[in-house]
């Protein structure tokens, strides 16, 4: 409907309706992330109970919510190994 509204030139005829449509088109995208975050928070809290600090809980939430981001484990190991000589000996073959 938004595309038809723009293609037919109704933007200048109904400017307020165009604003409402613009807001309506963006709403489903902005409400999906909080719902996912709350469900992940429930999973994390039920598994670990209340034995963690707020910082650790926030870090675990970020990891849990952003599972669609690919992580190259070899790159992570090399990054940690390069931080000290002890880690280099322990993490590299």
From TrEMBL:
One of its GO terms (molecular function) is protein dimerization activity. Residues 13-64 form the HAT C-terminal dimerisation domain. Transmembrane segments: none annotated. It comes from the Eukaryota. InterPro entries: HATC_C_dom, IFN-induced_PKR_regulator, RNaseH-like_sf. This is Zinc finger MYM-type protein 1-like isoform X2. It comes from Aphis craccivora (Cowpea aphid).
């Amino acid at each position: 409907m938004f595309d038809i509204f723009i293609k037919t030139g109704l933007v200048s005829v109904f400017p307020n309706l165009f604003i409402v449509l613009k807001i309506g088109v963006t709403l489903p995208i902005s409400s999906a992330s909080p719902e996912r975050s709350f469900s992940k928070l429930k999973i994390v809290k039920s598994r670990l109970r209340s034995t963690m600090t707020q910082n650790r809980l926030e870090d675990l939430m970020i990891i849990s919510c952003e599972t669609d981001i690919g992580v190259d484990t070899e790159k992570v190991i090399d990054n940690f190994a390069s931080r000290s000589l002890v880690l280099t000996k322990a993490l590299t073959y």
